[in-house]
Amino acid sequence: VNASRQETKLMEECDQLIEIIQQRRQIIGTKIKEGKVVRLRKLAQQIANCKQCIERSTSLISQAEQSLKENDHARFLQTAKNITERVSMATASSQVLIPEINLNDTFDTFALDFTREKKLLECLDYLT
């Protein structure tokens, strides 16, 4: 009878430990998923910024090409001046045109190390 009671108690205690571990796994898993969502959102914003940069650059190139085809010298000088100013502004604000892209963004905040916990579990000894 005593042995059966001890076995039952052992199973209950181990089930509680397993429950605690599963709860912690769910909490940590949720945090990792949230971090992933944040990083994906940042990447999507960086992609959008790059697309805008490409569109602005393409527009500027098209305008410059059209200006080079201009036969009217006065009109060419006017458009060339405008294009030169736009290129100067684009060059001066290169941070705006060339967005910062950080591909090395890692999950350093989620450095998982279970060494200590594994050792503690291996050292569990309920017998006194």
From TrEMBL:
Its EC number is 2.3.2.27. It comes from the Eukaryota. Pfam families: COS. Its main location: cytoplasm. GO terms for cellular component: cytoplasm. The keyword Disulfide bond does not apply. Residues 68-127 form the COS domain. One of its GO terms (biological process) is regulation of microtubule cytoskeleton organization. It catalyses: S-ubiquitinyl-[E2 ubiquitin-conjugating enzyme]-L-cysteine + [acceptor protein]-L-lysine = [E2 ubiquitin-conjugating enzyme]-L-cysteine + N(6)-ubiquitinyl-[acceptor protein]-L-lysine. InterPro entries: COS_domain, E3_ligase_FN3/SPRY, Midline-1_COS. Keywords: Coiled coil, Cytoplasm, Ligase, Metal-binding, Transferase, Ubl conjugation pathway. The keyword Ligase applies. It is an enzyme of class 2 (transferase). One of its GO terms (molecular function) is ligase activity. It is found in: Cytoplasm. PANTHER family: E3 UBIQUITIN-PROTEIN LIGASE MIDLINE-1 (PTHR24099:SF23), E3 UBIQUITIN-PROTEIN LIGASE TRIM36-RELATED (PTHR24099). This is RING-type E3 ubiquitin transferase. It comes from Pomatostomus ruficeps (Chestnut-crowned babbler).
